[in-house]
Amino acid sequence: xxxxxxxxEDVLLKEDVLKENEIILYNxxxxxxxxxxxxxxxxxxxxxxxxxxxxxxxxxxxxxxxKTGSYKDLEPRCSMLLEAGLxxxxx
Length: 91
Prior knowledge:
- By secondary structure, the protein is an alpha+beta fold.
- It has helices at 3-17, 33-44, 48-61, 71-83, and strands at residues 21-26, 63-69, 87-90.
- The chain has a 3-stranded antiparallel beta sheet.
- Helix 2 (33-44) packs across helix 3.
- The N and C termini lie far apart (35 Å).
């Protein structure tokens, strides 16, 4: 096996290991923009601008990735979103 092939194999292996999970927030017809924005600030440590942009994307596109990271970090954050009445899941 050549050095180039070995390096490519190592990079692909590291990509698989470093794959991060993400919280996907879904649109609904119940929650207000203010509620979604405030919840994203609280649960996902968004800035007000980030939270507003995510809420607009969710409204018009139907969903938006609002946070990426390890499952261990995302699980309590997703739980906070769900407890606040938002529709979200970890992928």
